Amino acid sequence: MAEPVMERPAVQADVKPVQDIAPAAEPPGEEPGPARSRTRLGLFVLAPLAVAAFAAWYVLGGSVVSTDNAYIQAERVGVTTDVAGIVAAIEVTDNQVVHQGQVLFRLKAEPFEIALASANAQLDSARNQIMFLKASYNQSLAEIAQAEAKLPYYQTNFQRLEKLVSVNAVSKTNFDDAHQDLDNTRQKVAVAKAQAAAALAQLGGRLDTPVEQHPSYLQAQAAVNEAERNLRNSVVVAPFDGVVTNVDSLQVGAYLQPPQSAFSLVSSDHLWVAASPKETELTHAQPGQSVTIEVDTYPGVIWHGTVESISPASSASFSLLPAQNTTGNWVKVVQRIPVRIRIDDSAGKPPLRHGMSAVVDIDTGAARGLPNPLASLFASHHE
């Protein structure tokens, strides 16, 4: 008898409606499709604008030459005097502000006063000597006139006795006396003329020349002037407005002689900027161009200036041993050219000091242009 076949129950699938199935979630970190499209569109628009802006900045921004290799410079001198002496007093202190003509220090005045008194005495002696020469000349002229007035008498007497002695009418002694008188008178005239000529020569050839114009008087007056100058220079004054420094290096009692420097004076008025931009940046730089100046000591403060001059040689050219590229392993180094910049608006600004670091921007007014490869490419494409 056949076994009955048992039927398995059909498995019903768990089927849900289509509307109940949730869409698959986006991978984390990814934007939805429309958002990604907007981002890509923004990139496609902004990227060319950024490139164009950078290109415009590169081409047009090259008109400004900027360098931080710049320093404030000022007139600076070593204070000294051209006379030697012992320091008697120091009238200033270190880092003191001084003005032109202000006394800085003094040397002992006694030696210079003695020298001046001696020179004045020599001047008086020269004046007296000139007056004596004039008197001697006048006296010589008087002696000449007196001797010449007697000369005809002695000449006539000699001739008369000469005739008488030939006939033995007078003695030989009388004749000799007459001859001697004539010779003496002639000698007096000659001596007086010689003395007058010598006196006139010492007077410079002219009797009417004023005493103050005589060479010996002028020489003595020059000695007086020099003594007065030395006395005046024993008091050392500031040649310009500024600040004195290293005053402590000079002490009272020290012997100072030229050209020894006592201490330094740095100008507070005449300042400028010494900049050294690269040679490749000075293509369009010219004197007269405007400059903006920032000093590291005063952030945010702007000075304005003008290019005053550009050095005719690089900084390395003035070194004691200039570089000589004579070997085969030579490396090209960009040189720096010194530029002097005048500061135009220092009034009302913080004080500038010699040696301060600065950043300068020179407005050349010329665009940089395209790089050489791009310029060549555009030129060939245009052709």
TrEMBL record:
GO cellular component, one term: cell envelope
SUPFAM superfamilies hit by this protein: HlyD-like secretion proteins
UniProt KW keywords: Coiled coil, Membrane, Transmembrane, Transmembrane helix
Family annotation (InterPro entries): AaeA-lik-b-barrel (IPR058634), EmrA/FarA_HH (IPR058633), MFP (IPR050739)
Entries under PANTHER family matching the protein: MEMBRANE FUSION SUBUNIT OF EMRAB-TOLC MULTIDRUG EFFLUX PUMP (PTHR30386), MULTIDRUG EXPORT PROTEIN EMRA-RELATED (PTHR30386:SF19)
One GO BP annotation of this record: transmembrane transport
Transmembrane feature ranges: 41-60
Keyword Iron-sulfur set for record: no
Record-annotated p-hydroxybenzoic acid efflux pump subunit AaeA-like beta-barrel domain positions: 272-362
Full protein name: Hemolysin secretion protein D
Chief site of localization: other
